[in-house]
Amino acid sequence: MTSKAERLRALNDQLRSTFIGGAVMITQGVEAIPIAKRQRILQQVRTFDNFNDDNDPHGEHDCATLDAEGERILFKIDYYDRDVNLHSPDPGDPAVTTRILTIMLAREY
Q1: How far apart are CA 65 and CA 61, in angstroms?
Q2: Which residue of 3, 42, 62, 108 pairs with 104 in a disulfide if CB–CB is 3.0 to 4.6 A?
Q3: C-alpha torsion 98→10→78→63, nearest 10
Q4: For 67, what's the count of Cα atoms within 13 Å in the CB-facing half-sphere?
C-alpha cells in the first residue's frame, strides 16, 4: 500500500520532471530572463533531486529552492479542484485535482 506522502511525491515528481500532469506557471521575473538562460533554469527545476528534511519535511516534493544560472529559484506545487477555484478535496487523486507548478525568483515570493 502506498502512503499519502508517497502518492503525492510521485505525482509531484511527475509534474516537475516532465511538465505533464498539471499546469506550469512562471512568474514575470522568470519570464524576463533571456530565453536560453530561462531554458537552463527550467531544466534544473526538472532535474532537481536535492530534497531533504529542511526543504521537504513532509516528503511530498512540493516545494524547494535552488541556485540556477546565478538566480535563486523557488518552485512550488499547489493543489486545486478541477475547476481551479478551490483547494483540491484530495491532492492524491488526479481525477479531482489540478496541480499547478509555479516557478519564480525567490525574491518574488
Answers
A1: 11
A2: 108
A3: -160
A4: 1
Is the distance from CB of 60 to CB of 9 less than 8 angstroms? Answer: yes
Write out the E strands in 1-109.
Answer: 23-26, 63-68, 71-80, 98-105
Distance between alpha carbon 83 and the CA centroid of its chain, in Å?
Answer: 19
Q: List, for residues 38-48, the tens digit of each pLDDT value.
A: 999 999 999 99
Whether residue 28 has pLDDT greater than 80: yes
CA distance 108 to 62: 18
Is 31:25 a contact under the CB 8 Å cutoff? no
Q: Which residues pair with 88 in a beta bridge?
A: none
26: alpha, beta or left, given left = phi > 0 and alpha = psi -120 to 50?
Answer: beta
pLDDT for the residue numbered 2: 81
Q: Cα 39 vs. chain centroid, distance in angstroms?
A: 16
